[in-house]
Write a structure and sequence with these properties.
With about 500 residues, the chain is mainly alpha-helical. The chain has helices at about 5-25, 30-45, 50-55, 85-105, 115-130, 135-145, 145-155, 160-190, 195-200, 205-225, 235-240, 245-270, 270-275, 275-295, 300-320, 325-355, 365-370, 370-385, 390-405, 410-435, 440-445, 450-470, 470-490, and strands spanning about 65-70, 75-85. It is globular.
Length: about 500
């Protein structure tokens, strides 16, 4: 489907241009105006993505809402955009979560407000660009450009060790992408001077070439997911990032790597993907089990949820590499759900941090006595985080476990252990923070959530419940694209 209205370009450039306008406004004495303009820009950016869902033909294969224009004609670089049933959800999710990031900072960020809001709006547009690019070089430009706003967000508005965390984040993710650029140039040459991703997916590559390309892409995408053992940047980045930074990191940025596997690694190097599937599955199971145990011993709430994100993303890569409809749809559903639930978990931790200025579990206790409305939301999202049935967290994990059992019973059994670990670390954290007597005078003085915070958490709770109770609209949209991808991956190029 090709629309006369460039919805994808609008969803990319409205937040980017709005961010630049906010930077031009600048001064903190204009902070109220900046906040409202940022909120308006975020809402409009989400509004222009809604027609993508409304007008999407879930029965058709291939890219829809296609945009095509010459960019660097001499090297056949195209400004090409489009979404299929997989990419569509992440475009919507990115624009949706950006609204919450703006609202979450409404009263908390008081210095350099314009820079803060601008960084998130620009980051939102760049991430939409990653999910909708159909040109390989355009994808790479957007993919790398996302590092800059997040580097600044952590480095300027982060915690005491923000410089260390921001540099570690940048080095890990940037160095992991260097081989990807080499692979892109190689594929451009093999395709006769074309950066079109669809053309790359049809190249008759030898198993040797596929192996090198697979691992070149793997270096970038595994770090971004992040997969064990290249995950160590994420807990540091989460702990030091401001609340909005943690929300975007967990809800959207981790999905860039997982999306890369779907768009590049699997369809371009299918034989290598099958050959190295046991390796990826092993790393995924380590992430699901080992990192789950690591999460249980964390003293910092943010670090605990950060490690839980690594474990949840292990389900995603596991679902991809069992090569089944159940596994692939479950993995994508898990990515969408993780956007709702992990974003909400970090918002909840941010609510507590804004009041107490500590994230240590030991500093809390008895919060339910002073913040009953907050405690109810925090309990709901903690249960969704461990995959409670009727929440979105259950849908993806259950489908991936079913697919893993069909693939190999023992792999499925090992994956199912994560449900127990998830319940253990999520509910144990909640018990120590919320239940019992009021631990100290600081907890006793806490005030419950206001209208702004209630609205944010309520909307995310409704989204998680809607997906958990009625997952069919989510899976129906992606089904044809998943079937096409698996059919393509099953066809050997050798």
């Amino acid at each position: 489907m090709q629309s006369t209205i460039p919805y994808l370009s609008l969803s990319i450039w409205i937040p980017i241009v709005s961010g630049l306008v906010l930077l031009a406004i600048g001064r903190d004495e204009r902070a109220p105006l900046v906040r409202w303009l940022a909120f308006l820009a975020a809402v409009v950016s989400f509004a222009v993505t809604v027609p993508l869902y409304v007008g999407f033909d879930s029965g058709a294969s291939g890219m829809q809402f296609v945009e095509h224009a010459n960019w660097i004609g001499r090297f056949a670089v195209i400004y090409g955009l489009g979404v299929d049933g997989i990419a569509l959800w992440f475009v919507l999710l990115t624009a949706f979560i950006t609204i919450f990031v703006v609202v979450a900072a409404w009263e908390v960020v008081t210095k350099n407000v314009a820079g803060y809001m601008a960084a998130f709006l620009i980051l939102s547009g760049l991430m939409v660009g990653v999910f909708s690019a159909t040109d390989g070089l355009l994808f790479y430009v957007f993919f790398e450009a996302t590092l800059i706003p997040m580097f600044l967000i952590i480095g300027i508005w982060g915690g005491p060790n923000r410089v260390y965390a921001s540099i570690k984040f940048f080095l890990y993710t940037f160095l992991g992408s260097l081989l990807t650029l080499v692979a892109i140039i190689y594929l451009w040459n093999q395709a006769g001077g074309s950066f079109d991703i669809a053309t790359w997916q049809k190249l008759p590559l030898t198993i040797g070439a596929q192996t090198l390309i697979f691992f070149a892409f793997f270096m970038a995408f595994a770090v971004k997911v992040p997969m064990w053992p290249v995950h160590t940047w994420l807990p540091d980045a989460h702990v030091e990032a401001p609340t909005g930074g943690s929300v975007v990191l967990a809800a959207i940025m981790l999905k860039l790597g997982a999306y890369g596997f779907v768009r590049f690694s699997l369809p371009i190097a299918p034989d290598a993907a099958h050959q190295f599937a046991p390796f990826i599955i092993t790393l995924s199971l380590i992430a699901v089990i080992y990192v789950g145990f690591v999460a249980m011993v964390q003293a910092d709430m943010k670090k605990l949820v950060a490690y839980s994100s690594i474990a949840h993303m292990g389900f995603v890569t596991l679902g991809f590499f069992v090569f089944s409809e159940l596994g692939m749809e479950g993995a994508i559903a898990q990515m969408i759900s993780h956007g709702f639930v992990s974003g909400a978990m970090f918002l909840c931790i941010g609510v507590l941090y804004d009041r107490m200025h500590t994230r240590l579990i030991a500093d809390y206790g008895g919060v339910v006595n002073t913040m009953p409305r907050f405690a109810a939301f925090f309990l709901f999202f903690s249960m969704a985080n461990c995959g409670l049935p009727a929440t979105s967290g259950f849908v993806g994990e259950f489908l991936v476990i079913l697919a893993a059992v069909r693939f190999d019973f023992w792999i499925g059994m090992l994956a199912a252990i994560a449900l127990i670990l998830g319940a253990a670390y999520s509910l144990w954290m909640y018990k120590r923070v919320a239940f019992g007597k009021v631990a100290n005078a600081h907890v006793g003085a806490l005030r419950d959530i206001g209208t702004r915070e209630f609205a944010m958490l309520a909307i995310l709770a409704v989204a998680s419940l809607a997906m958990g109770l009625v997952p069919k609209p989510f899976t129906d949209v992606m089904h044809v694209s998943v079937v096409d991808l698996l059919r393509h991956v099953a066809q050997s190029k050798l």
